[in-house]
Structure formats: C-alpha cells, structure tokens
Design goal:
Collagenase (Catalytic Domain), alpha/beta
Length: about 150
C-alpha cells in the first residue's frame, strides 16, 4: 500500500504512527495491497475553506474524505480492486478540542478521525440511522482491535 502523510499543520504528530494506523484499517477492510491513500493534516483555515468549497458548509470541520476510484472493502470470497482510495484532510486543532471534550486526548481523536475518514472513502456513510449504526459500530470495532494490537507485547 502507498500511504502518504503530509503534515501541513502546526501539530506535532507522529506521521509514522498514522501511516501504521491507516495500513491497519485498510488491511482490516481488505483494501487491495496496491491501493493508494493520502492523508493531509491541515490547519483550521484550510479545512474551513475546503468544507465550504466542497461540502457547502461554513466553518471548520474535523475530517473531510475525497474518494478517487470508489474502491469498496474486499469481500472474503473475491479479490479487492486496485486503485487510488483517495485523500483525507484531518484538522489536528479540531481533533485536539474534540479529544479534550471526549476525554481521550488528541492522538486518540486523530486515530478516530483517520479511521472514520477511511471508512467514508470506502463508501460508508452515516446519513441514515441504520448507516450510522453500521459505520460507527465498525469504526469502534476497528479502533478496539487497533488498541489491542498496539498494546500487545512485541
């Protein structure tokens, strides 16, 4: 997998850690091993501008997902498609505020937003109650697995 992480924000985040998380999520979702993903960490002004330009919403948001080749999760009985998964824009400053409110800190919130964004790139949504439940249950399951894996002795 090709995972590019660009830190265009003032945040001091471990981009290698985020790349490992992204790889974990993509592996877990059976994304093709040659798929490409770009994650940009951006400031509030940049994400506010993108949010208005692409989503028609005013003000900053936490994460934006821009799918490219409309890849979907691989099924157990078929080979996943190869291509460009897309781009994620994550705002660490927003994550810092949300992480403090949630009581789990900035890194955990950036992990959540990255996982959430990758699920959006794979076609998951949360507009309808049943979609919301499916996406957020899957997101929680992946983050639990990530946490267990990250804490396992090496």
């Amino acid at each position: 997998m090709s995972i590019e992480i660009l830190n265009e924000s003032d945040a001091d985040l471990d981009v290698d850690h985020l790349a490992k998380l992204a790889r974990f999520v993509m592996d877990r979702m059976r994304v093709h091993p040659q798929a490409e993903l770009c994650i940009k960490l951006v400031d509030e002004a940049t994400i506010a501008e993108l949010n208005e330009q692409w989503m028609g919403k005013e003000g900053p948001t936490d994460v934006l997902a821009f799918p490219m080749d409309e890849l979907r999760p691989g099924l157990l009985d078929e080979e996943p498609e190869e291509g460009v998964l897309g781009d994620l824009m994550v705002a660490p400053a927003i994550a810092e505020k949300q992480g403090a409110t949630a009581g789990h800190g900035t890194l955990a919130e950036v992990e959540l937003l990255t996982t959430h964004g990758i699920l959006h790139l794979l076609g998951y949504d949360h507009a309808e109650p049943e979609e919301h439940k499916e996406m957020f249950d899957l997101q929680a399951e992946i983050l639990r697995e990530w946490g267990s894996q990250a804490q396992a002795p090496r």
